[in-house]
């Protein structure tokens, strides 16, 4: 039981330690160049094969950027873009894009 | 007389047969020539809806569904995504540029036509019919 409580506390701490800040993310979209291809809110990709990010799940966006950064996911453009981001910046960008409400993304019924 | 008739019929039959064979050969030649040039694949959302989305909806069709393996995070929303990105994503899984094990397995079973159909189904045109909802 004590172990369980410790695990819960550790889990809660690990979440809070990496909570993204959407306002910081908004600045990073411009500073890091995401805006050039995805649009400021991630709603307007430049090319047909680039994804809409607006309204996407926060943790999926964190996963995608982390995988690009680590090289688990390979893409000539995104490897370079994500490689320059810290873990906190990845969280902030994910918080910004996922908090956008104007999007065509939705849960398929 | 009957022999003459027989010969005439035989000749006609042979001529007809030869012509038919020639036409057949011509017909057979056409698709072979067409196959030499890459044909543009057009996605069909109805084909995807009827035959191909069964293995997608188990994860992508459940709002808020999370992956169980190897890491836990929300399965991305793909409805309303750009068709071109869905195509790129499935091909990247198929060619091993993206790591998720289940998606690699699923994408490996898809032809270019399957991918085009799924992209058309999940892509924005189809999504336009369904209202975007706040999560």
Care to describe what's here?
The complex is a heterodimer of chains A (109) and B (135). Chain A is mainly alpha-helical. In chain A, 59% of the residues lie in helices and 0% in strands. In chain A, helix 4 packs across helix 5 and helix 4 packs antiparallel against helix 6 (87-98). The longest helix of chain A is centred in the first third of the chain and has 16 residues, at 2-17. In chain A, 34% of the residues are buried. The longest helix of chain B is centred in the first third of the chain and has 35 residues, at 2-36. In chain B, 63% of the residues lie in helices and 0% in strands. At the A-B interface, helix 4 of A face helix 4 of B.
Throw out a few tags for this protein.
heterodimer; A: 109 residues; mainly alpha; 59% helix; B: 135 residues; 7 helices; disordered C terminus
């Amino acid at each position: 039981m004590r172990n369980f409580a410790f695990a819960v506390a550790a889990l809660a701490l690990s979440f809070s330690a990496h909570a993204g800040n959407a306002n910081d993310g908004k600045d990073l979209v411009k500073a890091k160049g995401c805006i050039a291809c995805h649009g400021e809110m991630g709603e307007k990709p430049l090319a047909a094969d680039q994804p809409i990010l607006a309204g996407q799940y926060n943790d999926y966006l964190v996963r995608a950027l982390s995988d690009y950064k680590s090289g688990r996911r390979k893409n000539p453009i995104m490897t370079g873009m994500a490689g320059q981001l810290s873990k906190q910046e990845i969280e902030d960008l994910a918080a910004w894009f996922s908090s956008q409400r104007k999007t065509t993304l939705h849960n398929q019924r | 007389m009957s022999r003459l008739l027989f010969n005439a019929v035989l000749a006609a039959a042979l001529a007809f047969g030869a012509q038919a064979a020639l036409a057949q050969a011509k017909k057979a030649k056409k698709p072979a020539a067409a196959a030499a040039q890459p044909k543009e694949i057009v996605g069909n959302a109805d084909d995807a809806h009827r035959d191909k989305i069964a293995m997608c909806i188990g994860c992508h069709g459940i709002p808020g569904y999370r992956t169980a393996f190897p890491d836990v995070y929300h399965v991305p929303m793909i409805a309303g995504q750009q068709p071109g990105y869905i195509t790129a994503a499935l091909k990247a899984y198929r060619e091993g540029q993206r790591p998720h094990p289940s998606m690699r397995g699923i994408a490996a079973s898809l032809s270019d036509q399957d991918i085009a159909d799924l992209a058309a189904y999940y892509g924005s045109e189809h999504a336009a019919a369904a209202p975007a909802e706040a999560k």
